[in-house]
Amino acid sequence: MSASRRSWAAWTRALLLPLLLAVPGGCLNRQELFPFGPEQGDQELEAGDDRVSLALQLSGGLHFYDKSDINYVYVTTNGLIAVSEPPAKESHPGLFPPTFGAIAPFLADLDTTDGFGKVYYREDFSPSVAQLAAVCVQRGFPEVAFQPKSVVVVTWESVAPYQGPSKDPAQEGKRNTFQAVLASSDSSSYAIFLYPEDGLQFYTTASKKDEGQLPAVVSFSQGLVGFLWKTNGAYNIFANDRESIENLAKSSNSGQQGVWVFEIGSPATASGVVPADVNQEEAEYEEEDEDYDVVTELGLETTAPTTFSYKTLGRRGTDTYHVPSARTARRTATEGPPELPSGRTRSFQLPVERVSQQHPQVIDVDEVEETEVVFSYNTDSRQTCANNRHQCSVHAECTDYTTGFCCSCVAGYTGNGRQCVAEGSPQRVNGKVKGRVFVGNSQAPIVFENTDLHSYVVMNHGRSYTAISTIPETLGYSLLPLAPVGGIIGWMFAVEQDGFMNGFSITGGEFMRQAEVTFVGHPGKLVIKQHFSGIDEHGHLTIDTELEGRVPQITFGSSVHIEPYTELYHYSPSVITSSSTREYTVTEPERGGVAPSHTYTYQWRQTITFQQCTHDEARPALPSTQQLSVDSVFVLYNQEERILRYALSNSIGPVKDGSPDALQNPCYIGTHGCDTNAACRPGPGTQFSCECSIGFRGDGSTCQDINECSEQPSVCGSHAVCNNHPGTFRCECVEGYQFSDKGTCVAVADQRPINYCLSGLHDCDIPQRAQCVYTGGSTYSCSCLPGFSGDGRACRDVDECQPSRCHPDAFCYNTPGSFTCQCKPGYQGNGFHCVPGEAEKTRCQREREHLLGTTDVQRPRPPGLFVPECDEYGHYRPTQCHGSTGHCWCVDQDGRELEGTRTRPGIQPPCLSTVAPPTHHGPQVPTAVIPLPPGTHLLFAQTGKIEHLALEGSTMKKMDAKTLFHAPGKVIIGLAFDCVDKMVYWTDISGPSIGRASLHGGEPTVIIRQDLGSPEGIALDHLGRNIFWTDSQLDRIEVAKLDGSQRRVLFETDLVNPRGIVADSVGGNLYWTDWNRDNPKIETAYMDGTNRRVLVRDDLGLPNGLAFDAFSSQLCWVDAGTKRVECMSPGQPSRRKILEGLQYPFAVTSYGKNLYYTDWKTNSVIAVDLAISKEMDEFHPHKETRLYGITTALSQCPQGHNYCSVNNGGCTHLCLATPGSRTCRCPDNTLGVDCIERK
Q1: What are the residues facing 666 on neighbouring strands?
Q2: Is the Cα dihedral 695, 697, 698, 702 positive or negative?
Q3: What is the pLDDT of residues 1041-1069, one digit of tens each?
Q4: What average pLDDT is seen over the chain?
Q5: DSSP conformation class of 20
Q6: What is the pLDDT of residues 1006-1025, one digit of tens each?
């Protein structure tokens, strides 16, 4: 009999005959589970319902489907291990498959509240556990030699079912115990599910959506795949009803009852998980070379005789299957998997690009009557209703088209098909609001988070009532004019005139909205961001709102009146825009019997983006323009309850005759062409004028920002720093000060002891002259360094040459903090001891003597003859000039002219000595580094400072963000981190210079000042102890040791605008970007400069930032031209688009599953999840100025080494790694008689 038939026979017997053929006493007992519990080092999941653990970082990494770089997993209460963080709305079991990658040994609504069970998890590296996992895998896959390096053990012990309000007495006291083990080697991963005897006592749990019961599911899911447009990846349902779940402990696919083994990550699992196919009874049967016929009487029903023809799975053969089902034998294998049970809906996105229709590839190892175990694959490249019906609302129809499917609400319901609600039914909208808003001219923002928003909509009247609670009264009145915050809900459910559609009919309540409010005559603007997530499990629409910016101050107790208005909405595929000008009247509280009243104006722009189904070409197109009519507006702030209320009455229809919009005035319809920082003033008919907003100058069509900080240097007062912003400015108190109620900076009152030395708040002299010593409490002492005298607060250099400490026959030269001695002419020695005799002349002295023909250095030079100048040490002066012609130039230490430095007569070039590095004094004001707490941090550069942001897993701890150190007067561009010495390195284009600072504290230092043009990107090889940087002015790439010495130019040709640069320390490779507008490219070379080649040339715009992840060996970049994030494995030609639609990315770094990039448009740090290609979080620093470089300060270095790791690779000077070797190089501009170059 063929191997494939024997394989199917074994699989069939495992499913059909668990009760008939089970060996007595052969079930798995609880003592045979993998060891678990606190004594094994397990972490314990927090007790409760729908809990999700923090990220469990995997040292070994996990392979799953076609991915091999999963470094985190999340454990949930509900019998599931997620390979990416589950969204909050999917924290309880719902529709399968979920949007995230999942491994589910028993997916059900489980509950550990009040001590009903525990969930344990850990990553284990012990040999005993690894061997136990290897034995299980070997049983299921006898032909595979597998030895895991890491094992994840997750145990659900005695967990209870969620029962809901009406508890089922039959489930009282029922508890389930089961285990999932994930074993991984370098090349593959396996899942082992263990179900002990009597471990599964219940098989369904109560639904949170209705009063029914939901069956448990044993399954795997790849989650959403795709870069911009997401679709469901492959998913495998193994068991999904009572009978199949019950048999998990009684049967097996690996030869041991209760133990099920699956290959989940390898080249064979790109399209689906591979199950083991060994049964404990296999040895008792002799196979014959013929089809295996099964006729088994099961209970009261008998299945018809069925012939199974099975082709082996995954690596054993092809991935094509023809397995007629025992229950549904008439359904062919190309019909797709059976429809999944209905459940709650969730948002989804449909692809817009056309895909040629292909034959779907559906793999079904379908159910049989006794066990009903299902193992189905979804690998269809064209999405159809058959495998996506659940994407539509339960009140919608699904229709297949040539390129995909579309959903449409049935009669009596309205929506976009994915989300449908009953026509005319009242709707509720719930959400959260957070904000950071400046009021009036205040320099201190009002910050609020987790504020509730509730809205009630009377749909058949188009009326919406919105309330935002717990708004601080210092802000509440000033937000009254912003009725559009709640007005978006009115647009969603506006009364529809015939042939026109409101927002819900178009978007289904799933869209992103960004609005910008500019208050005429007031500096600054307010940005409103709202994310509508569709209908939740309670039938309510959900919304998240964020407010940021500045609003005019409205006096406490005032009322605001807004006249009815109209607004034009312009429609294009997946995008809706509108802009308008609105007036509002503020009536202040009565004073002396008079209530002052003032009318103000603001301009409103908004963009709404949503996903539109494009497959139905016959669907009527949206009107290009619709008019929203707001017939009544009511706004109120309740000071006692701190509740902000907006009420609006809305309808949607055509542009009405006689309305201001009907005049098509450019100010109303958004075609005015005014500068984005200008107000459009409508005039008669279609006439208009443009007026620059406050804080800008210009003619309205072009407006330039006014730099208030330059024009009013003292505007912020003392102890404050002025930061210019577009249209406005902000004052920031220096360290140790904070804003008072009057808006001035006052000293921070803190009773805790302050280490003034560590914080840099002491008044000792600069570190080059004095030392600060902390003496406990809040006291310290200052003392001058050796070679200086004074009280420590003011130190003067001691002139050691008065009296001279040198030999009487020597010259004494005083230097800051020290001195040097040199024997006089005619004597030789070290300066402290001189004896008669001539010292050996230097090269410069010998050349002068040769040219002048005498030792008399005072003899006049012959006309036209160039004679070099020597310094007091006999070295060539770095600047040499020709006495006759007046030309000057720079020379190296051997007197050779440096190319490109010769100047015209009368001008001396700024030459730097190449004899020895110059002494670089620190900044005049101490700028001590504040030591970082333990852990991994993001470091990012902002003009004049570097900030740090702690990471917890991949989550940015935004409340803990602080300044690492200030660098006044500097513009820091690139950042790199040395994980060995915990040092951050940076480039500064204002100096220009390259510097570094220790994260343990102390003063930053400059390591390179000279021969720099515009240093931008910087990279670090922590193994070879070298730094590399790009210089966009000199168009070259250089390398140096970490202290800035031994510089060498690696490349100086075919570079135009080099910027980002990263180093692969283990691989010995360099990568850099060149944003040459005519020929942008990403290049690579070995670290020694050899094997240079273009890595990426096509489809680039302005490649700015570059990141190399040492853990996944993945190269990623951000492009401000294409506005994309892309990644690739450098050894492979294919690229992967991670995310599109970025604003203006500049620099990027990686850590774990995330990329983090800085953005010039939003002035923020944005986190992107590589696994799901989605922006996960955004951090806006308090100081809103442009962000530049970003890097990850790792808590420990990545594993690995290169040939420069030990003893500098045996090199005398520069050791430059290459793949599998190293090259010894000499620095530039040195003769290097003691330097040996070799490979």
Answers
A1: none
A2: negative
A3: 999 999 999 999 999 889 999 999 999 99
A4: 79
A5: H
A6: 999 999 988 999 999 999 99
Lowest mean pLDDT among 23-37, 184-198, 545-559: 23-37
Q: What is the Cα 1085 distance to its own chain's centre?
A: 27
Helix or strand (DSSP H, E) at 1094: strand 1093-1096
Distances from the Cα of 370 to the Cα of 20, 247, 284, 374, 977, angstroms: 11, 9, 21, 12, 61
The structure tokens 């230490």 sit at 893
Q: At 368, list the tokens.
A: 């049989």
Q: Does the bond joining 97 to the residue before it have cis omega, within 30 degrees of 0?
A: yes
Residues 6+ apart with CB under 8 A from 594: none
Short-list 965, 999, 971, 970, CA closest to 984: 999
Q: DSSP readout, 657-673? A: TTSGGGGT-HHHHT---
Q: What whole-number distance in Å separates Cα of residue 797 and Cα of residue 947?
A: 35
Report whether 102 contacts 220 (CB < 8 A).
yes
Q: Which two tokens stand for residue 384?
A: 């159809």
Pairing status of strand 643-653 against strand 495-496: parallel
The model's pLDDT over 784-833, given as tens digits with 9 standing for 90+, comes to: 988 888 898 888 878 878 777 888 888 887 766 677 788 887 888 888 88
- 96 contacts 237 by C-beta, under 8 angstroms: yes
Q: CA-to-CA distance for 376 and 364, rounded, in angstroms?
A: 4
Q: How far apart are CA 376 and CA 239, in angstroms?
A: 10
In Å, how far are 261, 272, 277, 319 from 312, measured between CA atoms? Answer: 16, 13, 10, 8
Question: Alpha-carbon distance 734 to 744, whole Å?
Answer: 12
Task: Report the alpha-carbon distance of residue 694 to residue 699 in Å, rounded.
Answer: 13
Cα–Cα distance, 428 to 422 (Å, whole number): 13
Q: Which of 690-699, 731-740, 1168-1177 has the highest mean pLDDT?
A: 1168-1177
Using DSSP's 3-state secondary structure scheme, residue 384 falls into: coil
CA-CA-CA-CA torsion for 610, 613, 619, 625, nearest 10 degrees? 10
Could you tell me the strand order of the sheet in which 972-978 lies? 972-978, 983-988, 993-998, 1005-1008
Q: How far apart are CA 394 and CA 329, in angstroms?
A: 28
